[in-house]
Amino acid sequence: MHRAWLLPLLAIPALAHAAPDNADADTCRVSLFTDSQAGFALAKVAVPRLYLLGGDDGCPGKGEAACRQRAYVVKGDALVLAQRRDGFACAFYPNKAGDSTGWVAQASVQPLPSAAQPTPQAWNGHWHDGDNELQLTANGDGSVTVTGDAYWPSANPDPEQVPGGPHIGAVAARGYPDGNRIEVSEDECTVRLQLLGDLLVVADNLQCGGAKVSFGGVYWRERAAQR
């Protein structure tokens, strides 16, 4: 089902980032999206309705009728695009009510304008992806400090299902932007961030906390409180 609420987005160019060796270019799923070896870019839907297509059993090549999933987007909606194959792109539709991924025909979307060199201040903010949080702060020397916490399966899981409480992780490190990307490291933990307007695409090396903990995801910037 289409989710209508979406923050206005600003675009920046796609730039590749390192990804795990087992990243599958033919897989398009929420849990693996930010580990794509492709660069990320923003695009807007250019047709009245666009279904997100599955990738199994010959899809998405079989076309919409055979491959469409329940989720769809409409003209003007913004998508994050990753890897391409055979005229299709893996698309992520960010929504606070629940994210969706699927293949879309590249002919059905249009690139959004891009800004290749965001200022350090453009990274500033409190960012969220579910219970995971990141605070980004620009420094006077041009670097950006990244601090945050991550949880699995959530910050407050059902104690009957997770008797010992959530697995937790944390990062506190500083790095210098390279275009619209920053990579920071603290001990064994490495976190990669790519800024897409009011979205932040984040991946890590799965060494930032307890078992299954990851900062990986697409984050929203928290809006400042109105006075």
Describe this structure in words.
This protein is mainly beta. It is globular. The two termini are 35 Å apart. The N terminus is likely disordered. It is 2% helix and 42% strand. The strands form three sheets. An eight-stranded antiparallel sheet has the order 11-10-9-8-15-14-13-12, with no helix packed on it. A five-stranded antiparallel sheet has the order 6-5-4-1-7, with no helix packed on it. Strands 2-3 form a two-stranded antiparallel sheet. It has one helix and 15 strands.
Summarize the structure.
The chain is 2% helix and 42% strand.
Tags for this entry?
single chain; 227 residues; mainly beta; eight-stranded antiparallel β-sheet; five-stranded antiparallel β-sheet; 1 helix; 2% helix; globular
String of helices and strands: EEHEEEEEEEEEEEEE
Strand content: 35-45%
Overall geometric form: globular
Please give the largest β-sheet.
8 strands, antiparallel
First-residue to last-residue Cα separation? 35 Å
Please state the structural category: mainly beta
Mean pLDDT: 87
Number of strands: 15
Low-confidence stretches: 1-23
Radius of gyration: 18 Å
Strands of the biggest beta sheet: in what spatial order? 11-10-9-8-15-14-13-12
Number of helical segments with 4 or more residues: 1
Level of helix content? under 10%
